[in-house]
Design goal:
3 helices; mainly alpha; elongated; DUF8069 domain-containing protein; DUF8069
């Protein structure tokens, strides 16, 4: 056999590896919001209420995330939203 064997060609391997490593770096940099359980959410939202970031509207049974103006009817929703909102805001500041 005098020509290169197509199965032995590794020319594109380094590009695939680099693409995979970049994707892993992006995944690591992202904030996970899927791991917010009820207890963690309650602690986070209580802290946010104390810091006036979240306002409880008792007569409507909602929680308002003041910086964004978004309203939620679940403590877990507010906690997940705030984590994502904070991560996006922090990423925007890092880009500047």
């Amino acid at each position: 056999m005098t020509g290169p064997d197509i199965l032995d060609d590794t020319g594109d391997d380094h590009e695939r590896l680099e693409t995979e490593l970049l994707a892993q770096d992006r995944d690591i940099a992202q904030v996970s919001t899927a791991d917010v359980d009820e207890t963690t959410a309650r602690h986070l939202v209580n802290d946010l209420v104390d810091d006036s970031v979240v306002t409880a509207v008792a007569e409507q049974r909602i929680l308002v995330h003041e910086p964004s103006g978004e309203a939620f009817d679940s403590i877990q929703q507010v906690a997940v939203f705030h984590r994502g909102w904070s991560a996006a805001r922090d990423a925007g500041e890092a880009d500047k």
